[in-house]
């Protein structure tokens, strides 16, 4: 962990009203230690891979936006799965953390066989990742079942991309019942993790066909990014860049200060602080000035996102292997 800032931890115990079937105590009798098991494996993974917290949080996000939070993003191609979400454009050679999910699942199965769903493991792993990174904790609502299908076209069409307008991203959030506060708060997950050059190099040299860089990029930040991602250099497309250059592995509110200073890495980051949307700008200002407000909003928005169309028994299954359907 970089830096020596001591970050306050906010405990959120809010319950989203739309899914009373989910409960933070769902496994209290069948797998009472599941949260600590998940947290322990994530903590171990962080020792050798400081990116893994951001990667696991992103997996949960990419899962929930496609068919709801049903662990469909974890399914490999094969058997009844003819088109894996892993091969969709937003995930291909980008989504990661699957091996860590496998290790979590193995540890949970050793303690509580055939009880905890992979979808719940993703929700718990995201909370553990944020909390261990210095961010808020919250009571994760549990009781999801694992889906029986993958939806590659849904992944291609429903997951927001780094190249879209704020209006498009807002519409994709609205389609799953999330509002502008959720959008701005959940974008704050870019306070840790990395992004490959290919996800933002359109901003560096020829933005929207203008022949010039994106004018909203800070000149000094632009220069450093151009050095990391040279023009017409295909070999740099996969080069990793910190989403938050000020504290790349710490979950804090610096992401929002970066936006105010025109140092948002992705187009969709910087557009949150543009004159096109005064509501988003106002929320960015609030979060930049008040980390506690950000932490509280982020925790609630994660609870909201984790409640997108969960499968409840008797729907779905409890996969024994998160990568494939039972019996496949």
Automatic annotation (TrEMBL):
<dbReference type="InterPro" id="IPR010255">
    <property type="entry name" value="Haem_peroxidase_sf"/>
</dbReference>
<keyword id="KW-0408">Iron</keyword>
<comment type="similarity">
    <text>Belongs to the peroxidase family. Ascorbate peroxidase subfamily.</text>
</comment>
<keyword id="KW-0575">Peroxidase</keyword>
<protein>
    <recommendedName>
        <fullName>Peroxidase</fullName>
        <ecNumber>1.11.1.7</ecNumber>
    </recommendedName>
</protein>
<keyword id="KW-1015">Disulfide bond</keyword>
<comment type="function">
    <text>Removal of H(2)O(2), oxidation of toxic reductants, biosynthesis and degradation of lignin, suberization, auxin catabolism, response to environmental stresses such as wounding, pathogen attack and oxidative stress.</text>
</comment>
<keyword id="KW-0479">Metal-binding</keyword>
<dbReference type="Pfam" id="PF00141">
    <property type="entry name" value="peroxidase"/>
</dbReference>
<dbReference type="InterPro" id="IPR002016">
    <property type="entry name" value="Haem_peroxidase"/>
</dbReference>
<dbReference type="InterPro" id="IPR019793">
    <property type="entry name" value="Peroxidases_heam-ligand_BS"/>
</dbReference>
<dbReference type="InterPro" id="IPR000823">
    <property type="entry name" value="Peroxidase_pln"/>
</dbReference>
<keyword id="KW-0106">Calcium</keyword>
<dbReference type="InterPro" id="IPR033905">
    <property type="entry name" value="Secretory_peroxidase"/>
</dbReference>
<keyword id="KW-0732">Signal</keyword>
<feature type="domain" description="Plant heme peroxidase family profile">
    <location>
        <begin position="21"/>
        <end position="326"/>
    </location>
</feature>
<keyword id="KW-0560">Oxidoreductase</keyword>
<keyword id="KW-0964">Secreted</keyword>
<keyword id="KW-0376">Hydrogen peroxide</keyword>
<comment type="similarity">
    <text>Belongs to the peroxidase family. Classical plant (class III) peroxidase subfamily.</text>
</comment>
<keyword id="KW-0349">Heme</keyword>
<feature type="signal peptide">
    <location>
        <begin position="1"/>
        <end position="20"/>
    </location>
</feature>
